[in-house]
C-alpha cells in the first residue's frame, strides 16, 4: 500500500498545513532564508497561512493546485501549483480550488493584506539571477497554447 497519496486540489481549509509544508521547504534554502531578517520560521508559517486562502483563490480560472498527503500522519508533504494557458481554463477542474462565498473572499483578502510579508530590501539585485534565468527560459513562441487551442476550441469558433 502506498504511504502517500496525490490529491487533485487544495482547499482553503488546507492553508495551515500548506503553509507549514511550503515555508519549511523554502526555509531549507539559504538564499531564501536570508530574505528574512530576525523572523522565525514559525512567524513566517503563521503569516503564510494568513495569505494562503487568498493565494489559492487568485486566478482560479487558470490556476490548479495539488497536494501530496502522508497516509500515516495526515500531513501535507508536497505541493504544486500549475498555471494553465487561458485556452485550458475549462480543463482539469478537479485540481481547481473550490470557490468560496463573497463574504469569505473579503475575509481572506483582509487576512492577506494584514499578514506581515516584509522581506529584506537592503540587497538590491539579490534575485537578479533568478529573473535572468526565468527570462532566458520563458517561451518565445506560443507552441503549447496554439496546440491546445486546436485541440480544445472547435474550428468554427477560432479566430482567423
Automatic annotation (TrEMBL):
Source taxon at top rank: Eukaryota
Full protein name: Acetyltransferase (GNAT) family domain-containing protein
Amino acid at each position: 500500500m502506498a504511504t502517500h497519496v496525490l490529491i487533485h486540489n487544495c482547499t482553503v481549509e488546507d492553508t495551515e498545513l500548506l503553509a507549514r509544508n511550503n515555508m519549511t521547504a523554502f526555509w531549507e534554502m539559504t538564499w531564501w532564508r536570508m530574505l528574512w531578517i530576525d523572523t522565525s520560521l514559525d512567524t513566517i508559517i503563521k503569516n503564510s497561512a494568513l495569505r494562503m486562502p487568498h493565494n489559492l483563490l487568485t486566478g482560479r480560472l487558470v490556476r490548479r493546485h495539488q497536494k501530496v498527503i502522508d497516509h500515516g500522519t495526515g500531513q501535507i508533504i508536497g505541493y504544486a501549483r500549475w498555471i494553465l494557458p487561458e485556452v485550458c481554463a475549462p480543463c482539469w477542474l478537479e485540481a481547481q480550488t473550490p470557490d468560496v462565498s463573497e463574504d469569505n473572499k473579503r475575509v481572506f483578502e483582509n487576512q492577506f493584506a494584514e499578514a506581515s510579508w516584509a522581506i529584506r530590501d537592503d540587497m538590491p539585485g539579490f534575485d537578479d539571477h533568478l529573473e535572468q534565468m526565468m527570462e532566458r527560459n520563458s517561451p518565445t513562441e506560443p507552441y503549447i497554447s496554439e496546440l491546445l487551442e486546436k485541440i480544445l476550441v472547435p474550428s468554427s469558433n477560432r479566430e482567423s
